[in-house]
């Protein structure tokens, strides 16, 4: 699992999960990932994150790629699908396990929540309180006999991770013992994403600000596996009028919805350009115009509230 000596500042990426159609917020993030990469003269890759079988929906991958094309985005090389790369994730998990860095966890989500909300517990309900960290062999056998398949967690030892985000500035957080293999046997997002970013030579990860809390975990995994740590740029989200992350319930938010409302991809691109300070009202710039105007240092730092036609 040591560094594969790849050239490491040569690619950017967009990594959608084919669980539902992309909305204008996802598409704006894709546009920004493309702009950051192309501005730097880097390759731009698209990776389909399709290992969560319970959430992947048929036909969505094709629809997402069509939408990216309709926006004028292009990418280098073939589409990479995580479902075709399971061996890589299993190797990484086996390597961590052989180093004694993993332990089986039999907790249900409900139990974790209950432990975390106990008076002496950790307040953040997403943080794992360490229940299974020091189980004896006999206790593990007892749980297995009871038929509970374990997830595998990493011994993060409360590591404090600091990094500089290109958009959000200095970040630091303490990592908990998070899951690297789920109890259905699937590799966890945190693990698959860093294995792929390293394997694909991603130098800068550009993604939505909603994922910034995952980054300390991912940096820790890179360190444990001896993989290079990419740079990070977590870009502002598009929010619904209620201040929540944009979603289907906010109305006509996909390219298909916009088309039904009489707006083509060029209109949507123009809206994005205006919200990013790259176009004046009434202007309809093409994607190459946006690239020639783009400056990563001048990216707005605040979210945009979705208001169609604005
Ligand atoms: N597949 C993730 C998502 O669609 C993004 C992962 C990433 O960019 O690191 O939310």
Automatic annotation (TrEMBL):
<comment type="similarity">
    <text>Belongs to the class-I aminoacyl-tRNA synthetase family. GluQ subfamily.</text>
</comment>
<dbReference type="InterPro" id="IPR014729">
    <property type="entry name" value="Rossmann-like_a/b/a_fold"/>
</dbReference>
<keyword id="KW-0862">Zinc</keyword>
<feature type="domain" description="Glutamyl/glutaminyl-tRNA synthetase class Ib catalytic">
    <location>
        <begin position="13"/>
        <end position="262"/>
    </location>
</feature>
<keyword id="KW-0648">Protein biosynthesis</keyword>
<feature type="binding site">
    <location>
        <begin position="13"/>
        <end position="17"/>
    </location>
    <ligand>
        <name>L-glutamate</name>
    </ligand>
</feature>
<feature type="binding site">
    <location>
        <position position="105"/>
    </location>
    <ligand>
        <name>Zn(2+)</name>
    </ligand>
</feature>
<feature type="binding site">
    <location>
        <position position="207"/>
    </location>
    <ligand>
        <name>L-glutamate</name>
    </ligand>
</feature>
<keyword id="KW-0479">Metal-binding</keyword>
<keyword id="KW-0030">Aminoacyl-tRNA synthetase</keyword>
<feature type="binding site">
    <location>
        <position position="128"/>
    </location>
    <ligand>
        <name>Zn(2+)</name>
    </ligand>
</feature>
<dbReference type="GO" id="GO:0008270">
    <property type="term" value="F:zinc ion binding"/>
</dbReference>
<dbReference type="Pfam" id="PF00749">
    <property type="entry name" value="tRNA-synt_1c"/>
</dbReference>
<protein>
    <recommendedName>
        <fullName>Glutamyl-Q tRNA(Asp) synthetase</fullName>
        <ecNumber>6.1.1.-</ecNumber>
    </recommendedName>
</protein>
<dbReference type="InterPro" id="IPR022380">
    <property type="entry name" value="Glu-Q_tRNA(Asp)_Synthase"/>
</dbReference>
<feature type="short sequence motif" description="'HIGH' region">
    <location>
        <begin position="16"/>
        <end position="26"/>
    </location>
</feature>
<feature type="binding site">
    <location>
        <position position="132"/>
    </location>
    <ligand>
        <name>Zn(2+)</name>
    </ligand>
</feature>
<dbReference type="InterPro" id="IPR001412">
    <property type="entry name" value="aa-tRNA-synth_I_CS"/>
</dbReference>
<feature type="short sequence motif" description="'KMSKS' region">
    <location>
        <begin position="245"/>
        <end position="249"/>
    </location>
</feature>
<dbReference type="GO" id="GO:0005524">
    <property type="term" value="F:ATP binding"/>
</dbReference>
<keyword id="KW-0067">ATP-binding</keyword>
<feature type="binding site">
    <location>
        <position position="107"/>
    </location>
    <ligand>
        <name>Zn(2+)</name>
    </ligand>
</feature>
<dbReference type="GO" id="GO:0006424">
    <property type="term" value="P:glutamyl-tRNA aminoacylation"/>
</dbReference>
<feature type="binding site">
    <location>
        <position position="248"/>
    </location>
    <ligand>
        <name>ATP</name>
    </ligand>
</feature>
<dbReference type="GO" id="GO:0005829">
    <property type="term" value="C:cytosol"/>
</dbReference>
<keyword id="KW-0436">Ligase</keyword>
<dbReference type="InterPro" id="IPR020058">
    <property type="entry name" value="Glu/Gln-tRNA-synth_Ib_cat-dom"/>
</dbReference>
<dbReference type="InterPro" id="IPR049940">
    <property type="entry name" value="GluQ/Sye"/>
</dbReference>
<dbReference type="GO" id="GO:0006400">
    <property type="term" value="P:tRNA modification"/>
</dbReference>
<dbReference type="GO" id="GO:0004818">
    <property type="term" value="F:glutamate-tRNA ligase activity"/>
</dbReference>
<keyword id="KW-0547">Nucleotide-binding</keyword>
<comment type="function">
    <text>Catalyzes the tRNA-independent activation of glutamate in presence of ATP and the subsequent transfer of glutamate onto a tRNA(Asp). Glutamate is transferred on the 2-amino-5-(4,5-dihydroxy-2-cyclopenten-1-yl) moiety of the queuosine in the wobble position of the QUC anticodon.</text>
</comment>
<dbReference type="InterPro" id="IPR000924">
    <property type="entry name" value="Glu/Gln-tRNA-synth"/>
</dbReference>
<feature type="binding site">
    <location>
        <position position="189"/>
    </location>
    <ligand>
        <name>L-glutamate</name>
    </ligand>
</feature>
<feature type="binding site">
    <location>
        <position position="49"/>
    </location>
    <ligand>
        <name>L-glutamate</name>
    </ligand>
</feature>
